[in-house]
Amino acid sequence: MSLETLTQTYRPALEETLRNAVQRAAGADFPELQAMMAYHLGWEGEGAGPEATGKRIRPILTLLTTQAAGKKWEHALPAAAAIELIHNFSLIHDDIEDNSALRRGRPALWKKWGIPQAINTGDAMFSLAHLTILSLAESNSMEVTLQAAAALQRSCLNLTQGQHLDITYETERSLPIEAYWPMVGGKTASLIQACTEIGALVAQADAPIRNAYLRFGRNLGLAFQVLDDILGIWGDSEKLGKSSVSDLVDGKKSLPVLYGLSQKGEFAARWVRGPIRPEEVPALAVQLENEGGRDFAQSEAARLTDSALAALDEAQPQGEAGKALRELAGKLLQREV
Amino acid sequence: MSLETLTQTYRPALEETLRNAVQRAAGADFPELQAMMAYHLGWEGEGAGPEATGKRIRPILTLLTTQAAGKKWEHALPAAAAIELIHNFSLIHDDIEDNSALRRGRPALWKKWGIPQAINTGDAMFSLAHLTILSLAESNSMEVTLQAAAALQRSCLNLTQGQHLDITYETERSLPIEAYWPMVGGKTASLIQACTEIGALVAQADAPIRNAYLRFGRNLGLAFQVLDDILGIWGDSEKLGKSSVSDLVDGKKSLPVLYGLSQKGEFAARWVRGPIRPEEVPALAVQLENEGGRDFAQSEAARLTDSALAALDEAQPQGEAGKALRELAGKLLQREV
Fold this sequence. Notes:
Farnesyl Diphosphate Synthase
């Protein structure tokens, strides 16, 4: 209940902040640049609407954290919008890098406008995010603004480090399980960590509380990715709005796959022989499950979930926003949002 | 003389700041990411050396401005390094967007490592630049740091706006001359403007002086691009280290070309019929020169050069660095560096 109410309170202000930022970047002088950004953010073009905007989980997590840590959520709006812009910039580039034609059930930006415009629009959105977070100075101290900007930029760097490993891993048939964590720590957890880290920073919470929020975000992000990996093999691909039938076909080095490889059983034997064909997927998914890949990933997700919720307890989140934060974590970890 | 002496003073500290930044982004944990950055920056790999690093004109311009405006150049080092990283990030992405195989006479990053890694390494360098400029806070006030970060980020946004127009113009056979200025104002002048704007900001010069430095940088950048356009048609392509024989073959909407189109003569008639073949270039370059394209561009370059030098006079640059700044402008405007 708290989560829905607060989300409804935040959303109009958040969308307005995002729209103002895009307007600033690409107003009347650059109508096509604006059109590309508005398309990707789900506001315009074929298929525009709630399904296409995504759920704005990251900015909501940021605003909830600021409020739960004892400050008005409005103070964190520029940071929340900046994080959502970073998330979307990374999706624009990832879709090119991964050769993914679909994003949230619609053609990816590069499919509609070509690779050169899509790379550049991603860069424009990246710049815009960095400009947007500096607006924190309008309602926060310069020190908070600088710290928040630095935290966001560190997280962007981690994002690219994780993506670098992801691309590098594509051409390797086998990898140890340990190779997984720096990849997902960068490409998924770093930005979710930034949400709670920056949210608590804006609230000027004490260092131990800020640190607890940071660990909450980090473990939440890691658990979220492990659950995503499980769905990528045993979930419903249509429901996820993805272009491929299975992560197995994409050759993705997900946690269940790396576990399966470590077992050196039938799954590993098939995997190292080369790309998986779509018709092999059902049997191979069963094989990997039988060899323990699903259970292992589930137990890792449970472990990370416990760490996330323990850190959230340590952070002592307050009031309605505190309740909503627990609710959001619960939903994310059951993949209901 | 002043320019050479000061450049030799700045260069070791500048390279060290750049190397520390790259080390920070991609140290022992990400050796290949570091190798890609070091290759692009001219430090490593086949053909590494002074020719491959580029001339570091932008950071030197930044450091000279800070010193000429009355503060120790060391204060501006993080800003100078950040600007050079932004310049290099944009080259990495531009080469993909323009399908250019060569950069400073060596294979472009994407040719060696593929498009996905090159996009992502550009993003990593972009993040790194934004992190690096925040280090200004170590020897400058928080206010100066925030203002400098905002100026850099505005310039990055302008850079992407200019690049957006450049890509958009590729598919249009004809354009009015006025379409030229927002494109080059963004893709070339914005970052050169940022050098002098931020250099003067770090020196905490008074507003009129800062504004004069800003206009100096902007007009210098515009003049530089117009001269580049002239060389792109009537210059020696080998000397420029470019892959194509002429901007005419690339269909680039340079200033001489847009002037030629506005004349609606023989040059325009040939241009609108479709792509130029390499063997047509010598005759067509003569045709465009006969129709006044070269003279027009030369007169625009002279006008912008005068504006740049007048603004530099207004800025009252001091001491050795002031002399060096005039020297650098003169050399840039004669394309001797």
